[in-house]
């Protein structure tokens, strides 16, 4: 099928696929796992069956749709919640949530599916969304073969054994540890570059296992006038006599990478602010040659015109950066601008792109070099050192197969934050095992109750959680399911013998917001709300303000709705605490109410962003999340005609211009 010779692990997996055997592939990032998926897809379509390709994030789903659309045209469709294109196609690209929901809500829909591909299946370990992968694997029809693609993990055999047990068929395990493009790792510490751990410890760590704490190092800042300057905060620590030493200079590191001929470079940082600071810092280096600047800007302008964002302020600012050979990429950007940056980078015209770690998750954007700005990050609490698998995922983007003899990885080390033994573990330790994160939502429980009635214990016993956990932990997990069911029974969602009340029928497809919206539906609030107020309520449910954000200031007419919603949430939380149910149902935050009101009123997007107090990419994401809720309300079996009509009208008013993900994807084809 492909014009090149397969690697050993690819050939082994392909032979299993051709023999009709499910396969679990564990291989390093960049090793060529996608080739195996392409064979499974081709086999499905050749036999007049269908194939499903699931991915953990929408950006990866969109990329796979574009890749397969270029090959198969109208035989490909996509379903991601905010995009529905060609949904009856024989090859469907889906987020894992949509696949799971479809299995629960439309039994038999995928009876003709030959293969389902679970890309990035190590996402089973994700604390918030891992349960979706587990449920999707459990619910996959037995007649459908499974191709699971994973980064390198130590317990691939265990996960394959679980899949084999629940589906009663063999699962071939194919593991590869060799990278086709080897990695060469260097360490920047005390502003010196080391290629060996021994010399790093001797000089960077001064022979110690860990340095005592000092003050923060300098960082380069961009002044209001656009100029750059340094602030060196290094200073002796009186208590210990230690000094912070020389701070790592990111600009000097990138200049060394350029001098060594190792561009293009992916530079990973862990906050949006830091990402933007570094991009402007690197722009000051003027990394691009005069003869390369014109084709780069022409490509950027052409794409901005195609995606209709040439008038956007953020596109102007990005153009200023790109003219100097740098760019940045994070979730706060306009989705269309992120895509433009991705396309320009993939065309190998930009020397360096600074990005957050989500860029490493499956999106096919390899570079010759990768830099990690730090090995620790903050994830809501105190700083934590990266996991081995996370480091491998990002480092794995270094080295382009068929283009580079090696990939080059640069780790910026702060010896005051990362003890040397932890660094050794990161470099030489095994990736963490993938463990179950099973936790059924109320909507999933309602769907299962409808089909399994009282045999929820039987369903739980098939889970990966039950497969991995000890007996006491299993009992506690099933006890939590029983407590959730008791809440649903007490609040009138369930009847005996697998029957659901009207409220229960309504809640079936409202994943994540089922209790709050179903109670408001039962009380007649959703039917009585004015159109825009319904849009504001749904946005308040999906919005998650940053920690420390002050309470929203609301106009008088919305205070009653906010108070009613909060009172209901207080009741729900009180019952959940009584039953020891966690996590608690998500709260409501009305901070973006004015933005939704303006947007529903037809205002231009650039007039709405300034009043939202969130980045434009975030605002679009939250608007798109409400679009998914509008569609869920439209599809809710028990919803009144009036409520469905309001959801339809909101969909038309909100899903326009940059919010319209479907139009954006069409323009990229």
How would you describe what is shown here?
Helix 1 (8-18) packs parallel to helix 2 (33-46), helix 20 (514-522) packs across helix 23 (556-578) and helix 26 packs antiparallel against helix 27 (641-654). The longest helix has 23 residues, at 556-578. With 669 residues, the chain is of the alpha/beta class. The chain has an 8-stranded mixed sheet, with helices on both faces. The protein has a 7-stranded mixed sheet with strand order 10-9-19-16-13-15-14, with helices on both faces. A two-stranded antiparallel ribbon has the order 11-12. It folds into 3 domains: 8-175, Rossmann fold, CATH 3.40.50; 187-233 and 241-428, Rossmann fold, CATH 3.40.50; 442-668, Sec63 N-terminal domain-like fold. Strand 17 (376-378) and strand 18 form a beta hairpin. It contains 28 helices and 21 strands.
Annotation, overall tally of beta strands: 21
Structural domain tally: 3
Name of the top-level CATH class of the largest domain: Alpha Beta
Mean pLDDT: 90
Low-confidence stretches: 215-242
Strands side by side in the biggest sheet: 4-3-5-2-6-7-1-8
What is the name of the CATH topology of the largest domain? Rossmann fold
What is the CATH architecture assignment of the largest domain?
A: 3-Layer(aba) Sandwich
CATH homologous superfamily identity of the largest domain:
P-loop containing nucleotide triphosphate hydrolases
Helical coverage, percent range: 40-55%
Distance between the termini: 24 Å
Using only C-alpha atoms, the radius of gyration works out to 26 Å
Count of alpha/pi helices: 28
Largest sheet at a glance?
8 strands, mixed
């Amino acid at each position: 099928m492909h014009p090149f010779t397969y690697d050993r692990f690819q050939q082994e997996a392909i032979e299993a696929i051709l023999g009709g055997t499910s396969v679990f592939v564990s291989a390093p990032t960049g090793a060529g796992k996608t080739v195996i998926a392409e064979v499974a897809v081709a086999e499905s379509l050749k036999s007049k069956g269908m194939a499903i390709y699931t991915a953990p994030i929408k950006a990866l789903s969109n990329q796979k749709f574009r890749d397969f659309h270029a090959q198969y045209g109208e035989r490909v469709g996509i379903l991601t919640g905010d995009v529905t294109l060609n949904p009856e196609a024989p090859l469907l690209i889906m987020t894992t949530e949509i696949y799971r929901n479809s299995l629960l809500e439309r039994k038999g829909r995928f009876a003709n599916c030959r293969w389902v591909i679970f890309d990035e299946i190590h996402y089973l370990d994700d604390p918030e969304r891992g349960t979706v992968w587990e449920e999707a694997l459990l619910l996959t029809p037995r007649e459908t073969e499974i191709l699971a693609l994973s980064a390198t993990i130590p317990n691939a055999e265990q996960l394959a054994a679980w899949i084999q047990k629940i589906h009663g068929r063999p699962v071939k395990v194919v593991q590869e540890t060799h990278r086709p493009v080897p990695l060469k790792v260097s360490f920047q510490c005390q502003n010196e570059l080391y290629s060996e751990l021994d010399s790093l410890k001797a000089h960077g760590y001064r022979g110690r296992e860990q340095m005592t704490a000092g003050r923060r190092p300098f960082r380069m800042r961009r002044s209001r006038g656009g100029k750059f300057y340094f602030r060196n905060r290094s200073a002796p620590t009186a208590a210990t006599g230690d000094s912070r030493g020389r701070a790592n200079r990111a600009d000097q590191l990138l200049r060394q990478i350029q001098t060594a001929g190792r561009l293009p470079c992916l530079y990973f940082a862990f906050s949006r602010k830091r990402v933007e600071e570094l991009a402007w810092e690197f722009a000051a280096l003027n990394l691009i040659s005069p003869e390369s600047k014109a084709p780069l800007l022409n490509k950027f302008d052409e794409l901005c015109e195609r995606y209709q964002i040439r008038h956007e302020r953020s596109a102007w600012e990005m153009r200023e950066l790109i003219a100097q050979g740098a760019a940045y990429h994070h979730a706060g950007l306009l989705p269309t601008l992120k895509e433009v940056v991705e396309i320009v980078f993939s065309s190998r015209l930009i020397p360096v792109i600074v990005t957050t770690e989500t860029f490493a998750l499956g999106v096919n954007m390899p570079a010759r070099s990768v830099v990690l700005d730090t090995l620790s990050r903050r994830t809501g609490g105190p700083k934590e050192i990266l996991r081995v698998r996370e480091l491998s995922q990002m480092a794995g983007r270094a080295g382009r197969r068929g283009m580079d003899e090696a990939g080059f990885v640069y780790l910026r080390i702060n010896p005051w934050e990362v003890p040397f033994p932890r660094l050794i573990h990161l470099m030489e330790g095994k990736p963490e095992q993938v463990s179950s994160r099973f936790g059924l939502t109320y909507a999933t429980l309602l769907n299962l109750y409808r089909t399994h009635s009282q045999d929820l214990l039987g369903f739980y016993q098939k889970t990966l959680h039950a497969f991995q956990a000890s007996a006491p932990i299993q009992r506690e997990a099933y006890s939590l399911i029983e407590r959730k069911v008791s809440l649903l029974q007490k609040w009138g969602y369930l009847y005996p013998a697998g029957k659901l009340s009207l409220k229960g029928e309504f809640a079936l497809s409202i994943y994540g917001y089922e209790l709050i919206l179903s109670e408001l539906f039962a009380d007649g609030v959703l039917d009585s709300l004015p159109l825009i107020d319904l849009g504001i309520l749904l946005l308040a449910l999906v919005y998650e303000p940053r920690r420390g954000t002050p309470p929203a200031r609301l106009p008088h007419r919305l205070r009653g709705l906010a108070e009613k919603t909060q009172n209901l949430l207080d009741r729900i939380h009180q019952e959940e605490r009584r039953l020891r149910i966690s996590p608690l149902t998500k709260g409501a935050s009305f901070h973006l109410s004015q933005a939704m009101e303006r947007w529903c009123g037809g205002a231009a997007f650039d007039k709405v962003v300034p009043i939202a107090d969130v980045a434009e990419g975030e605002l679009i994401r939250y608007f798109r999340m409400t679009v998914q809720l509008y569609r869920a309300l439209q599809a809710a079996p028990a919803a009144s005609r009036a409520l469905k009509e309001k959801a339809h009208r909101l969909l038309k008013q909100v899903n326009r211009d940059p919010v319209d993900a479907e139009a954006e994807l069409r323009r990229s084809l």
